Amino acid sequence: MLTGRLRDTAEQVGAGFLFTYPTDKRIPPLVGIDHILVGGGRATSVETVTLPGSDHRAVVAQIELDRPPR
After folding, report:
1. Which of 6, 49, 59, 66 gives a 20 to 30 Å CA spacing to 39?
2. What total number of domains does the chain contain?
């Protein structure tokens, strides 16, 4: 329902599938369950970063918001 008016930032910038879980195992993350959805703007960059003490990688995005109509 949300994806009808919201877009995934990774999809917007062509970053592909971001693997974010799990990070507390010997193997690298295999699942992408963390996303940033945006409406009324557009992502210009997106990346995952290590979050100490978490079993997920964080998703960080730069977003340009649309200008409100005048």
Report:
1. 49
2. 1
- Mean pLDDT, 10 residues at a time, the chain of 70 residues: 81 96 94 94 96 96 90
CB atoms within 10 A of CB 59: 19
Q: For residue 11, give both structure tokens.
A: 């999809």
Q: How far apart are CA 50 and CA 39, in angstroms?
A: 26
Query: What are the two backbone dihedrals, phi and then psi, of residue 4, each rounded to the nearest 5 degrees?
Result: -70, -35
pTM for this prediction: 0.83
Cα–Cα distance for residue pair 51/43, rounded to 1 Å: 21
Range of the domain at 60: 2-65
Cα–Cα nearest to 61, from 6, 24, 23, 22? 6
The answer as to whether 70 is a domain residue is: no
Q: Are 37 and 2 in contact (CB under 8 A)?
A: yes
